Amino acid sequence: MVGLAAGQNLELLSEQIAEFQPKYIYYQSNNFVPGPSHDRGSKLITDNCTFLPMEEIAGHPDVDIVVIATSGKAGLIRHPGRCQGR
Questions:
Q1: Residue 56: inside a domain, yes or no?
Q2: Would you say residue 41 has pLDDT above 60?
Q3: Domain-embedded: residue 48
Q4: Is 47 within 8 Å of 22 (Cβ atoms)?
């Protein structure tokens, strides 16, 4: 597992980080600023993960397969050049 990305469900992301231990994470939230760790009261968002934009995670050289589960039309936007030669 190279990376995980989430919208604003940081509780679920915390569980997935603990289970899959990704190198990189992305999340979208107005309440948190990316950094090495965030304490949300009782849960730690990330200890050993690096925050990167989703596009950088998907295009990272360590990534072989990208799996996306996005609802609506936003999940259908094509990013030219991201998957060429893979």
A1: yes
A2: no
A3: yes
A4: no
